[in-house]
Amino acid sequence: MAYRLSQKKKSFLVAIHVIAVASWIGGTLGMMLFGFYLQNAANGEQLAYTLVNMEVIDENLLKYPALLSLLTGIMLSVWTQWGLVKHYWVMVKLVLTIMTILIGIFFLNDWTASLAEMVEKMGFSTLQNPDFQNTWLSIIITASFNLLCLVLMVFLTYFKPFGKTKKK
Predict the structure, then answer these.
(1) What 8-state DSSP symbol labels residue 124?
(2) Which residue from 54, 108, 118, 120 has the least number of CB within 10 angstroms?
(3) From the centroid of its chain, how far is CA 121?
(4) For residue 35, which phi and psi values (nearest 5 degrees)?
(5) Which of 124-142 are b and which e, b meaning 16 or more Cβ less than 10 Å from the residue's Cβ?
(6) pLDDT tens, 27-75?
(7) Which of 113, 128, 138 is CA-nearest to residue 41?
(8) How many helices (H) and strands (E) would you count in the chain?
């Protein structure tokens, strides 16, 4: 028989998972809000410190909570009755979690850093740069998509749709 968590351990792990997910959602919202604020900056200093704040959020409220959510989610699915591949809703959450993490690693992180470099070189005039505008829009669209995925995962957790996977 496979290892199963006691109720106390399961509750503790669920609490850690919920805190990580809440932090991840909050970080994503913060990134979006700062992203929108970039367009309304009054000067180069505001642009620069807004991007610094976005990098702090990326480093602390996106990266670590996302990885902790993935780890605790896998542990909860494997060590409880749900299983990692027994239910479609668990598999969908796993795929969305991995996809959202990879988008952050391969796109959002680089885009935020490139905006910071542009502001460092060009200052306030960066706002008129088409490359800045395209990258900014990419961040807003991608952050919105990530937020949608996170909210969808919360709903999947509570409604548990799609049923069980077929056994072969």
Answers:
(1) G
(2) 120
(3) 29
(4) -60, -45
(5) eebbebeebeebbeebbeb
(6) 999 999 999 999 999 999 999 999 999 999 998 889 999 999 999 999 9
(7) 128
(8) 6, 0
